[in-house]
Automatic annotation (TrEMBL):
SnoaL-like domain: residues covered: 8-81
InterPro entries referenced in this protein's UniProt entry, alphabetically: NTF2-like_dom_sf, SnoaL-like
Secretion signal, residue range per the UniProt entry: none
Pfam families, per the entry: SnoaL_2 (PF12680)
Organism for this UniProt entry: Hymenobacter defluvii
Protein name: Nuclear transport factor 2 family protein
Residue intervals passing through the bilayer: none
Length: 115
């Protein structure tokens, strides 16, 4: 799967709350940031638990804007992220960068950079 297709599939699955489809884009030992808590979770089961808990507390939508390879081999994805609480109150609306390390054509690690 090409990088752009991988990113498109991953974000579409996340926004649709389709954890199984999202996990097919990720390496089994993926490391994923806990954006609103700090730290990381590792592996598919931990991501499933984290997202299930996250979606019981907030409603987020993340749309990729641009996908750019970096010199160090990582992939920078500029995204527009909107986060609301479950009463639809806006908590965040802005642009951030998700930086991915890829392994075997899958997402191996994601880091977040504020723009």
């Amino acid at each position: 799967m090409q990088n752009q297709e991988l990113i498109t599939k991953a974000y579409a699955a996340f926004n649709a709350r389709d954890i199984d489809a999202a996990l097919t884009t990720m390496h089994p030992e993926v490391q994923w940031p806990k954006a609103f808590e700090g730290g990381y979770v590792s592996g598919h089961a931990a991501i499933r638990d984290y997202w299930t808990r996250q979606w019981s507390e907030i409603n987020s939508r993340v749309e990729p804007i641009e996908c750019t390879p970096r010199q160090n081999g990582t992939l920078e994805v500029t995204v527009h992220q909107v986060v609301r609480d479950l009463q639809d109150k806006l908590l965040f609306d802005g642009v951030v960068k998700h930086v991915y390390t890829l392994q075997q054509g899958l997402l191996r690690r994601m880091d977040i950079e504020l723009t």
